[in-house]
Sequence to fold (475 residues):
Amino acid sequence: MKKIFIICLSIVALSACDLTSLNVDTKNPTEVPAGALFANSTVELFDYMVSTNVNENNLRLWSQYWTQTTYIDESNYELVERNANGRLWNKLYATVIRDARAAKAIIEADGTLLADEKVVQAAMCDLLEVYSMHVLVDLFGNVPYTEALMIAEGNANPAYDDAKAVYTDLLARLATISNNLSGDSGMGANDLIYGGDAAQWKKMANSLRLRLAIRLADSDNAAAKTAAEAAIAAGVFTSMADDFEIAYQDAPPNTNPVWEDLVQSGRSDFVVANTIVDYMNTLNDPRRDYYFTKADGATDHIGGIYGASNSFASNSRPGVAMYSTTMPGTLLDYTEVEFLLADAAERGYAVTGTTEDHYNAGIENSVMEWGGSAADATAYLAQADVAYATAAGTWKEKIGFQKWLAMYNRGFEGYATYRVYDAPVLNIAASAGTLPPTRFTYPTDEYSLNQANIEAAASAMGGDVPTTKLFWDAN
Fold:
């Protein structure tokens, strides 16, 4: 865990210099500044979503961007042995959401803040919670929401809410959050993403609202259309300068978690998967030399067989940028927004520009943000197998495939993209003998601690099994 939170607590502890401090437990202070809680919630969210530690986050593997060398359970969709599903559950509920709510409560009770600052800061806290709840729904389905984290109110056994009902409420909350984000946040350096710029948080709220709307579209097109059009009208990301990303630092403990997994660990656990390498080789994709490094002595990129034991030396590995301590961690970016706008345009929603315009912009930005040139992007888009008008497949398959390629460093969104669009065609895992699951199963601990509610939730969804589809993945 990053130590920003601990550092903030240390500052609070050291501020007490009189003798009465000898009676204070400085390691467990009774009051924590809202800014420190907000910063910790932010860091914990990014660290989890960015990480590729097999004990916590296997989504780069499930998206078939990477595969493993010796220990291959996670590439074959194992969740329970390392409690990866339970670690996710605990991270988001017990740390990210809890700290965001605690920060909001302190902000609302703070008599020194201006009324406008309270509104903006509370909206920023809400946005962290909404993002986290959306991740939980997208991975599990029905989850505790209305009654979540109500232990202080005497409810240690929360009911599970219907996943679509949660999405509906999250979209409504994002509309309110967007409306409340204007002016000076007063958050300053405690905002590790935008430095307190409320206008940037507003764009993030609307971009996330657009993502959720497009997820919803196949199950409730009317609601999706309303939400998407409102988000677009309110203002989504318009350049890579808007990206929702955290700047990691050069020295531990605030380095990029991927560096920790690839370098600091001293292990050689991952190579890139043949799934993505074969597709990109076929298309002569200009991002290959940024996404991957060639195998020892190889003249082209070679992907490891997905789900099999693979040689580290004989296959392409993650690209040079991913071995950097300071590579930014990104949760939502302009590239993704352009693909979402392409989808919205294809569905006939009120969007400026054509489907092809946004499809091209998503690809162009992806190429350039990885280090390629505008000329590289133009040459790539000129290929018949890439150009929107001539690429194979339905409109969903075209958008889904290129979005999946662009989400290479974002396993969660790559996995979601595959399920939303049923594209691209992924490989059968060598050992498991199956395609990726369509959801996470619930943590084992929940059956011990909240049995009646979890069993009701599982029954309502069609069973707590990996092949149960989420409500937005029904088609």
